[in-house]
Amino acid sequence: MSQTPDDAVRTYIEQHSTAFLDDLAEWLRIPSVSAQPVHAPDVRRSADWLAAKLLETGFPTVEVWPTPGAPAVFAHWPSDDPEAPTVLVYGHHDVQPAAREDGWDSEPFEPVVRDGRLYARGAADDKGQVFFHTLGVRAHLATTGRTAPAVGLKLLIEGEEESGSPHFRALVEERAD
Prior knowledge:
alpha+beta, 4 helices, two-stranded antiparallel sheet, Aminopeptidase, 177 residues
């Protein structure tokens, strides 16, 4: 019996989960705390890391957009169907401050797996969700044989959400096209 499309995607994800989690853990080690000026270089490194992974995934357009604060990452992958809709995914790559003495059972920027769950600052808010889109795109392409997504994809991943997004509105207005 052949696999359904959903089964094929699940199989792909299971087969690639270790590499995906290794990549995510690498990103989670970057303490991209936008609220602390000492971490400004880390927030930039986080944006650059994500941009590199989006290029590796296949996005033909990936840009790190500077702001007066922390950079955002923009990526675009048009569908090969000119009639296909475009989906915009918003997220953020900055994280809240975290220290072991805040009640963490392990170092917050050193990912660990306990009982089948990944623990690190940003694993759930929001690096994990943002990065999961790359796995979804990869699975979609691998299991459908497509060379571009079925819909146009745009990702806008800001670097200051955890600081109240002070420059986000101006960035979106400046780059509205």
